[in-house]
From TrEMBL:
<dbReference type="GO" id="GO:0004540">
    <property type="term" value="F:RNA nuclease activity"/>
</dbReference>
<dbReference type="InterPro" id="IPR023412">
    <property type="entry name" value="RNaseA_domain"/>
</dbReference>
<keyword id="KW-0255">Endonuclease</keyword>
<dbReference type="GO" id="GO:0050830">
    <property type="term" value="P:defense response to Gram-positive bacterium"/>
</dbReference>
<keyword id="KW-1015">Disulfide bond</keyword>
<feature type="transmembrane region" description="Helical">
    <location>
        <begin position="37"/>
        <end position="58"/>
    </location>
</feature>
<keyword id="KW-0540">Nuclease</keyword>
<dbReference type="GO" id="GO:0004519">
    <property type="term" value="F:endonuclease activity"/>
</dbReference>
<keyword id="KW-0472">Membrane</keyword>
<keyword id="KW-0812">Transmembrane</keyword>
<dbReference type="GO" id="GO:0005576">
    <property type="term" value="C:extracellular region"/>
</dbReference>
<dbReference type="Pfam" id="PF00074">
    <property type="entry name" value="RnaseA"/>
</dbReference>
<dbReference type="InterPro" id="IPR023411">
    <property type="entry name" value="RNaseA_AS"/>
</dbReference>
<comment type="similarity">
    <text>Belongs to the pancreatic ribonuclease family.</text>
</comment>
<keyword id="KW-0378">Hydrolase</keyword>
<dbReference type="InterPro" id="IPR036816">
    <property type="entry name" value="RNaseA-like_dom_sf"/>
</dbReference>
<keyword id="KW-0964">Secreted</keyword>
Length: 178
């Protein structure tokens, strides 16, 4: 048999059988449409997966979010070495390779954000210096290894002002301790 173009639940054979009848290939309108239904199901699944991934794409980490994740933390209360080893891993800086160094600014996120506004003084370009000093923990990779799981850090605690880069009134890059 040859087939006419089909719509859902309406496929028909165009040739007649030996008795001059068109064969009825339908079983409750489903069997002859199974391949089409499967194709539609696959298409619907694909669209659902695509739409499901859109929120993930939209939730990509912002520059300010990355700055906060990598540099802003509550007071540690731990030994600096233990703190660095724990936080560098917890904050995702040892996932692919060991980040060579990182500075944690201990304080409220709002106080750190304020450096880009009334809590800081414009330095140059888009850099701002904090008006007040923050407790800092500087973590540096030791000679143990440069790839996970061999990321081992030493830490140093100090209290200093900081310089950060700001975009749209928010910190996006830690430049240095002052």
């Amino acid at each position: 048999s040859t087939w006419e173009p089909c719509l859902l639940f309406s496929c028909k054979a165009t040739e007649k059988n030996q008795k001059g009848e068109r064969p009825n290939l339908r079983v409750s309108g489903v069997v002859d449409t199974m391949p089409r239904m499967l194709a539609y199901s696959v298409l619907v699944l694909f669209v659902a997966l695509l739409l499901g991934s859109l929120p993930t794409l939209a939730q990509r980490e912002t520059r300010h979010g990355k700055f906060q994740r990598q540099h802003v933390a509550a007071n540690s209360g731990l030994d600096a070495r233990l703190y660095c080893n724990l936080m560098m891993q917890r904050r995702g800086m040892t996932n692919i390779k060991c980040k060579p160094s990182n500075t944690f600014i201990h304080g409220e996120a709002t106080a750190v954000d304020a450096i880009c506004n009334n809590g800081g003084i414009h330095s140059s370009d888009n850099y701002y210096d904090s008006n007040s000093a923050f407790e800092l923990t500087v973590c540096r990779l030791t000679g143990g290894g440069t790839a996970p799981p061999n990321c081992n850090y030493r830490g140093r605690v100090s209290t200093q002002q900081v310089r950060v880069a700001c975009v749209n009134g928010l910190p996006v890059h830690f430049k240095q301790a002052l």
